[in-house]
Write a structure and sequence with these properties.
Layout (H helix, E strand, L loop, with lengths): L45 H6 L3 H5 L7 H21 L4 H80 L1
Helix pairs in contact: 3-4
């Protein structure tokens, strides 16, 4: 890699003492949720939802995060409940109905739980990046204070040496 130096980040607001402030974390009640598109408070109909589904999203559903886990768990749960109903002497129609219902229910629950975990992980990564940036800014601030202190001490030393040199000249 030719250029490993990080690009400078935009300045952050400070708290009045010269220390940078971290931006606030997202509201915990919205963790893992996708914010709505468009205007706030706008009601969407089922037709609008269907119009937003593209063929690309249907053909690549297997590439979506959490899909595999939710789908396989749904199959296993549906098969298990349907099998148990068959063993308990329920009709084939009743067992299949339970199997399909449990497939749908467990798939949705696992999907939502996985999305929620991914959202929390994403928020944690954002927070970690904020803390790293905060520490970098603190380190830069301390280095700048140290440089200024050294420059001030050097100026004071030069002024003291100049004053001593002037005193010697008058005392001859």
């Amino acid at each position: 890699m030719a250029n490993d130096t990080p690009s400078p980040s935009p300045p952050r607001p400070s708290d009045g003492n010269g220390r940078p402030q971290l931006p606030p974390l997202p509201d915990p009640s919205t963790v893992g949720q996708v914010p709505p598109r468009g205007q706030q408070g706008q009601d969407y109909s089922v037709g609008d939802a269907i119009n937003h589904i593209s063929t690309d999203s249907v053909t690549k559903i297997h590439q979506m995060p959490c899909f595999r886990q939710a789908y396989l768990t749904g199959i296993a749960t549906g098969f298990g409940f349907g099998g148990v109903k068959m063993i308990l002497k329920a009709s084939v129609y009743n067992a299949c109905t339970w199997a399909v219902g449990m497939f749908c229910f467990s798939s949705i629950v696992i999907w939502e739980a996985c999305r929620w975990r991914r959202g929390r992980e994403h928020d944690g990564m954002i927070r970690a990046m904020q803390v790293i940036e905060y520490k970098r800014l603190e380190r830069e601030r301390r280095l700048e204070e140290k440089r200024l202190e050294q420059a001030r001490l050097k100026e004071e030393e030069e002024a003291r040496l100049k004053k001593e040199a002037e005193k010697r000249w008058w005392r001859w």
